[in-house]
Amino acid sequence: MNNKTYIQYLFKDDDFFYVTTDVKRALGLEDILPNFHVITSVYDPLIPLLRNKNIHVFCLEEEVEKENMSVKSARQLFFHPKAQNYIHNQSSRPNILTFKPVEGMGEEKGEDGYEYIGNGRELNEQFEDKINFYQILKDNFKENMVPSIIGQLAELTYGNIRDQLGESLVIQFGKGWAGNTSFDVENESDFENLKKRFPQTHVRVSKRINGNTFLNNCCIYKNTIFHSSPAIQINGISWLNKNPLATSGREWGNKFLSSKETEEIRFLTEKMGRLLIKSTYRGYFGLDFIVDSVTGKVYVSEINARFTASCPFYTKLELGSEILPLYVYHLAEFLGKDIKKEYRRYEGIEGCEVNGELDKMSNLRVGTYKIEDDGTFDFENDSYDPAKILKDEVVLITDPKNSVKIQTNYPLLASPGKFQEKFEKIIKKEIITG
């Protein structure tokens, strides 16, 4: 029995509803799980492609007048009367999935007949809040934590921080997303400007480590810790995102880690997993690490105590390599399913996902494109599965907000933070400028 057939058999009696304001978050197992529904708020070019594959999609924007669209979160979407009607008309035992834990869900399991497939928000914030996580690192990973200071911005002084951490700093708020509450500080002027804007905010001020960020996807299933091999995070590419701290993607299969560094990441991942288990955490999570470019020292940077941004993409790569995905173990953990208690971590998985938030973008369809010898794109089909493409093809997933994902099953980086020259030219010509 292959993995696809096995997954279909395992969940043949289970109804899943992925509630999200961004339909791309719901990808991964959408065309394998037998009874899978997407509940989303705004129309997306992916929706007709999903429906063409007989995947159920409820889009609130199609059900209400646009001027009445006030839904901005998964919680608001889930509790909207029309979404509730859809869910309960489709299933008497709905299993609810969200990208991030939703306030109240998880602590209220069984209310209104639904089961929330994930940890509660309170447990998530024990680890994911950067101020809380600092204390966890201090207590358990002192040798592998970035030197930092915690405090309210109004009460911190640049001179004291500089004496302890140096001039080049990163300031992070406790909560935030995709770098929107992380700030580079190069000098006293940068610090004072931030202090004026957010005087009452509690922050983590950290020494900037000159190195590269790596990540892995992980899952706790029946108190066993599974994890992927590390991927390098793509940061600081200004023509993809103006925010220098924003993540512009990630790549598996690169050669930018030594065997010693890889082993240290594995050790630290399993140590963090044991802490999570002790706190009753279950299912999917991800870890970020910074590796010093000169010394090779590995620092634990952040934790995503939930689904990761790369989960949909990495799940496709796992399936393409005939690996039972971590996502499946996550579902099985919360539904009490017995499956083989081992995860085959295939070190040969390769693939790159590039994220762009652009001011201006070509009007390109979602689907698979072939890269021609002259450096142009030709649309081939509406498949968006990166595991199934050839070496001269890419997958594009776009949305109306000038956001784009470019996905491959082969590496695109020539070095950390630098794409292969041919690929960079194609992106700038065919996607950004058209």
Number of helices: 12
CATH architecture of the largest domain: 2-Layer Sandwich
Q: Using DSSP, what is the number of strands?
A: 22
Head-to-tail CA distance between termini: 45 Å
* DSSP helix fraction: 25-40%
Indicate the overall shape: globular
CATH superfamily of the largest domain: ATP-grasp fold, B domain
Indicate the proportion of strand residues. Answer: 25-35%
The CATH class of the largest domain, by name, is Alpha Beta
Low-confidence stretches: none
Sketch the major β-sheet: 11 strands, antiparallel
Radius of gyration: 22 Å
Instruction: Classify the secondary structure makeup into a structural class.
Output: alpha+beta
Count of the separate structural domains: 3
Q: Can you tell me the CATH topology of the largest domain? A: D-amino Acid Aminotransferase, Chain A, domain 1
Compile the SSE list and pairings.
Elements: H1 3-10, E1 15-20, E2 36-40, H2 46-52, E3 56-59, H3 74-78, H4 81-90, E4 94-97, E5 115-116, H5 121-128, H6 130-140, E6 148-152, H7 158-165, E7 169-173, E8 182-185, H8 188-197, E9 202-207, E10 211-221, E11 224-227, E12 231-235, E13 247-252, H9 259-278, E14 283-292, E15 298-304, H10 311-320, H11 326-335, E16 351-357, E17 367-371, E18 377-381, E19 393-399, E20 403-408, E21 413-415, E22 418-419, H12 421-433
Helix pairs in contact: 5-6
